[in-house]
Structures are given as C-alpha cells and as structure tokens.
Amino acid sequence: MPRQQSRTVILLLLMAVLLSGWTVPAQNAASGEIYSVIELSFRGPQQGPKDTPARDVDFWVRFQHESGAPEYKVHGFWDGDGKGGSTGNVFKVRFTPTKPGRWRMAEVHSNAKELARQKQGETIVARSSSKPGFWLVDQESPGGRWYKRSDGSRQYIIGNTQYSFLSGYKDGNNPSGVDIAADVANNARYFKKLRFTFHPDRYPHPQEKPFLDDDGRPVDAGDYSHRPNPKWFHERGDVAVRAAFDHDLIADLILCGPDTVDSRATLRAARNNGDPAPDLSIFDNLDPGFRGLAGPGNEFVLGTNKLRQGITARLPAGKWTVTQYDVINMKTTVLLTNADGSFTFDAPDSRAALIHFKRTGRGVDSGSKMQGKGR
User: Fold this and answer.
1) CA quadruple 45, 253, 146, 286: dihedral positive or negative?
2) Rounded mean pLDDT, 75-83
C-alpha cells in the first residue's frame, strides 16, 4: 500500500473512533487492595526548611468511585525531597479505597499552579482484600459507645502506652536506639492499640527534632508545628504508623502533649502568626461544655457534644461558608454559603460535632439578620 494511502486509512480509522464515542482509557496512577494505604506522589513548588507549605499550600484530591459513590476528599502534604530531606518539591496524598473497582481522581485542587489539576482524571484500581478495614462507631451497641470494623467484625480493644518511644536513641545505633517497627510488632502480639506521642515530650532527642524553626533548624517547640520536619516523619512517625497498620494495631497518636510545655504548644503554635486560639466570643446561647477556636476574623470552629437549639453566631464583616461535621455519624453538611451578619443554627444531637465558619470573601458588614436557619 502506498505511504500516502496508508496515512489516509489511519486518519479515517481515527475519525471513526472519535465519531463512535470511544474514549482513550484513563491512565492508571496506582493499584492496591481495599483498606490498604495507596501513596501518590506529585511534583509541586520547590520548598525549603524555612518555608511553610503545611500552612501555605492548599492541596487536596477528590476521589470518586466509578459507580458514582462513595466519594472522598483527601488532603495532601509536602514531603521534602521524598526521602526525609527538608528541601524538595515532593507532595503526597495517601488514599484508602473502601470499595473494589476504579477510583478516579475527579479533582486535584491546589492554590499552587504546579499542583493544580496534576494527574486529574487518572485512576486507582482497587482489589478486594481480607483486611477488616476501619474502626467505626457501632450504632447497635448500647449508647453507640463501642466499635466495629468495616467488615462487620467486632473486637475488644486492650492497649499499651509508650508515650515517647519515637525519640529514643543510642549513639551509633538505629535512629531510635531500638527498632521502632520491631517495638510496634511486639506490642501487636499482646495488644490491639498502642498509644504514643508524635512529640518527644519528656525525652527529647539531642539532635533530631519534630519541627523546624524560622531559621530552618530542628526544634522541639510545638509553637513551630506549622513547619513539620520531614526527617522526623520518615524515620520515626511514619515508621511507627506503618508498622501498626501492617500488624492491624491501632496507632493512638497524640499530636498535642501530654506532659511538657513544648509538646502542649503544638496546639498553641504561637510562632504561626494568628494560629487559632480558644475563642467563643462570636457565639450566643452556648452550652457551658462547648468549646471553640478562632483564627481571628477569618475562621472559627465550634465543638459541640449535645443537641442545642438556637445558637447564634455574629459573623465579622465578609462572606462566610458554614459547614457542620458530625464526627460520630461521619456526615458533612454545608449549612450556608455566602453568609453574613448573624446566623442562627442548632448543634446536632451528637456526642462529637464541629461547626466550621470560614471567611471566603471580603465585604462590608451590613449587620443584616439572615432569614435561614441552620437546621
């Protein structure tokens, strides 16, 4: 067949494919079993030890099953050079599929142009597995105070504590002085849960620290928790959590505390210039047991543990999105968008709920009362 004629045939075939509605299959980004952890790497903006990507880079992926449901939004994180180094452009997302089949990255969102829409449309192939899955609230138990696994099985939880074992060390030995993974594995022989702190707490390591200060130097002070140290995660935190997963042991990880000023300061994060602090000043008609945090003028979170009707929020100037997270029932509800002025709502009949107020636009506070109820 002459070359020109063969080219014509190929073009006609391509046109036939396009006109018939056929599409090129989406690229598979990864595969794994349901209830496993699938790690996806992305290339984002270059960051160093003095930068604050944990605070400044908004990055998440929306995963959707091929059947249309379920759908999950998973936040990503900066991982330095991907090997524990504190300079690099590696960002990661860790996703756990809960249903066999194809999961599409329906949306890859970021305020960093390098990450926005990267790998969007690619798929994850999830296979069946024998893993029992997540620990879920067992609504059939008395008062809904017990747990069951995703596969319906129920187990007793007997735990151990090793609060500061991540920071153990011996010169010239393993990073911890003991083998972190082996420690976790040995606990799994006798227990179902291991409680420990991410922070070294009372037993700080002389050189290795969980955070980086304004000059990029490793520190224990939790006031710098907005700048996590990738090395600490790679060689300690991730090792422990991964080993716990491998042995089906609950990693009861304490992020704030328990005992020292440095460890408890992870919640205060005083060097983060406006990190949320305890504040209930915009709310009226609260139960005395409710708690709140505020990033002044931009963000408020109200924590509730019981039904309460007729709570009022007096919102600062601007437009706000109000979202309710029922932690126990794993339900998210957007109560209102473009809210301003005063907003009246009910706290749900749940032992653990968060109502999140996020300013999404600037504006002049009209002082107008909103007609809608957040119920």
Assistant:
1) negative
2) 97
Tokens of 15: 């046109």
Q: How far apart are CA 286 and CA 125, in angstroms?
A: 46
Instruction: Give the Cα separation of 306 and 352 in Å (integer).
Output: 8
304 sits in which H/E element: strand 299-304
Q: What is the mean pLDDT of residues 150-159?
A: 93
Q: In the chain, what is the straight-line distance between the N-terminal and C-terminal CA atoms, in Å? A: 72
CA atoms within 13 A on the CB side of 288: 0
Cα(321)–Cα(343) distance, integer angstroms? 11
For residue 208, the Cα-to-chain-centroid distance in whole angstroms is 24
pTM of the model: 0.79
CB 283 within 8 A of CB 342: no
Model pLDDT for residues 100-148, shown as the tens digit of each residue = 999 999 999 999 999 999 999 999 999 999 999 999 989 888 888 889 9
Per the CB < 8 A criterion, the answer to whether 62 and 93 are in contact is: no
Enclosing H/E stretch for 246? helix 238-246
Tell me the C-alpha distance between 192 and 214, whole Å: 39
Is residue 23 within 8 Å of 121, Cβ to Cβ?
A: no
| DSSP class of 141 | S
| Cβ proximity of 13 and 5 under 8 Å | no
Pairing status of strand 353-361 against strand 299-304: antiparallel
Chain-centroid distance, C-alpha 262:
23
Task: Quote the tokens at residue 300.
Answer: 């408020």
**Nearest to 374, CA basis, from 329, 320, 330:** 320
